[in-house]
Amino acid sequence: MIRITSTIAIDESEIDENFIRASGPGGQHVNKTSSAVQLRFDARRSRSLPNDVAVRLMRLAGSRLTRDGVIVITAQAHRSQQRNREDALARLVDLIREATTQKAVRRATKPSLASKRRRLEAKGRRSTIKNLRQGKPGPE
């Protein structure tokens, strides 16, 4: 089990790993070994995630999400297969952790009368400074 939060843990059987040839660093070694990892996690059908977390996760995944609701994360930054596996898994865990937090709803507010007054006074001062720069006689 991979612990995400105190209440959410994902079973390792829900994550599929495929190893592919990387295009990154490694020289000749990169042509002979499959050091990159492609991690797949089915967010839509996962038994470990609550429904609201799964919906937020799919929204956060963006272009990494397939039509079937599978999140695909590719890691090829490192030369070793093991470090790429750890990197991909860490990225998935971070994404799920981000999906567990619910964003606060923004409530629209109107500016106060005092803040409107301060804004207009600042605009007036700035306007006076700019008029003085032009050398034109002002209204005073």
Commentary on this structure:
- It is built from 4 helices and 5 strands, in the order E-E-E-H-E-H-E-H-H.
- It has one domain (2-100): Double Stranded RNA Binding Domain, CATH 3.30.160.
- The protein is elongated, with a radius of gyration of 27 Å.
- The longest helix is centred in the last third of the chain and has 22 residues, at 113-134.
- Helices cover 41% and strands 16% of the residues.
- The termini are far apart.
- The protein is an alpha+beta fold and 140 residues long.
- The protein has helices spanning 29-32, 51-61, 81-100, 113-134, and strands spanning 2-3, 9-10, 15-20, 36-42, 70-75.
Count up the domains: 1
Shape: elongated
Major sheet, described briefly?
A: 3 strands, antiparallel
CATH architecture: 2-Layer Sandwich
Which strand-content bin applies to the residues?
15-25%
- The CATH topology name reads Double Stranded RNA Binding Domain
Number of helices: 4
Give the radius of gyration: 27 Å
What's the CATH first level?
Alpha Beta
Name the helicity range.
40-55%
Average residue-wise pLDDT: 81
Would you kindly provide a brief summary of this structure?
With 140 residues, this protein is an alpha+beta fold. The chain has one domain (2-100): 2-Layer Sandwich (Double Stranded RNA Binding Domain).
